[in-house]
Design brief:
The complex is a heterodimer of chains A (126) and B (185). Chain A is of the alpha/beta class and 126 residues long. Chain A contains three helices and six strands; from the N terminus they run E-E-E-H-E-H-E-H-E. In chain A, helix 1 packs parallel to helix 2. The longest helix of chain A has 19 residues. Chain A is globular and about 35 Å long. Chain B has a single domain, classed as Histidine kinase-like ATPase, C-terminal domain (Heat Shock Protein 90), CATH 3.30.565.10. The chains are: A alpha/beta (126), B alpha+beta (185). Chains A and B meet through helix 2 and helix 3 of A and helix 2, helix 3, helix 5 and helix 6 of B.
């Protein structure tokens, strides 16, 4: 599978999905007006990855901001990971939030309560 | 009597206006507004955590305009734009006010007002649950919105959504949303 490597912009995150490594990353800001357009290729990629995943997949989500329209797309990404987990593969989500950013911590907890995949909440201390 | 969308602000003189914009709300305008307000907050040394909150609420307010405005009335002075909106960002005691304005078709007014009233009746916990419910159950609409913007604004600010509808004619109202982002919450 071709990896997905996308450079971040002020409105869209840096993305690294590489099926040979098993550590995926979404990092930066995610506030595009049209978030579906940005996330659809990622969701589709995960759909293919799901067919023969590595035994362990770690996903690092380290967002500074995301808008509500991205929040639905991020849920779609997480749902694909949930399916991989359900098929007896190890999946772990590391949800990073900056020190004192309770909104970002709560956002991670929202997903944790919806998605049946182990989450780790990691505070970034400057 | 002529209709002036800026009348709403004449009795709201408190606070320093950081930004006033009326016109087309497209992606470039949104970028520009976000950069301007972010720079301004850095300049006055707002705490990073508070800055983020204001920024987040501003993103949602602008993208609400971007995704949801109805077309301007046929007889309105400004016909050039498809997504006509008004935005004011003010520094007030303890925080910032973000006021948006846009035309709403009368047929859409009731639904919008119901939504706001529902949010305003809810406790913080209920708003969190509502957010999760919408996040998990509703798909992104044809207009590109997720139906979460107002809920998110109420959740992040911890304040009630103040709003007003001013009748423009029998087909249109002008809708003002008046958001306070303050440090206490």
């Amino acid at each position: 599978m071709e990896p997905i490597i996308i450079e971040g912009t002020p409105k869209t995150p840096t993305v690294k999905f590489d099926s040979t490594e098993g550590v995926f990353e979404i990092k930066g800001r995610s506030i595009p007006e049209n978030s579906v357009e940005f996330y659809k290729p990622l969701v589709d990629w995960l759909d293919s990855y799901k067919e023969s995943p590595l035994t362990k997949t770690v996903v690092n989500i380290r967002l500074e901001y995301f808008n509500t329209s991205s929040s639905k797309c991020i849920l779609d990404v997480l749902k694909k990971l949930e399916a991989i987990h359900k098929a007896k593969n190890e999946v772990e989500v590391n949800w990073y939030y900056e020190e004192d950013d309770e909104d970002m911590l709560e956002a991670g907890e929202d997903y944790e309560s919806i998605i049946r995949v182990p989450f780790k909440m990691i505070e970034i201390v400057e | 009597m002529s209709f002036n969308i800026e009348n709403y602000f004449s009795d709201q003189s408190n606070g320093n206006i950081i930004l006033f914009y009326k016109g087309n709300v497209d992606s470039d305008v949104i970028n520009h507004v976000l950069d301007t307000v972010e720079d301004k907050m850095v300049e006055v040394n707002e705490q990073s955590r508070f800055r983020k909150k204001v920024y987040n609420v501003l993103v949602e307010s602008l993208q609400n305009l971007y995704h949801h405005v109805d077309r301007v009335p046929e007889d309105f002075e400004d016909q050039a734009f498809e997504k006509y909106g008004l935005l004011v960002v003010k520094k007030v005691e303890g925080g910032y006010k973000i006021v948006t304005g846009n035309f709403v078709l009368t047929e859409n007014k009731e639904k919008l007002e119901e939504k706001i009233k529902r949010i305003n009746r809810s406790s913080h916990e209920e708003i969190k649950e509502l957010y999760k419910f919408i996040l998990n159950r509703q798909r992104i609409s044809a207009k590109g919105g997720g139906g979460l913007g107002l809920v998110d604004i109420a959740r992040k600010t911890g304040n009630k959504l103040e709003y007003a509808f001013k009748e423009y004619n029998d087909k249109y109202s002008f809708f003002y949303l008046d958001i306070l982002v303050n440090k206490e919450n």
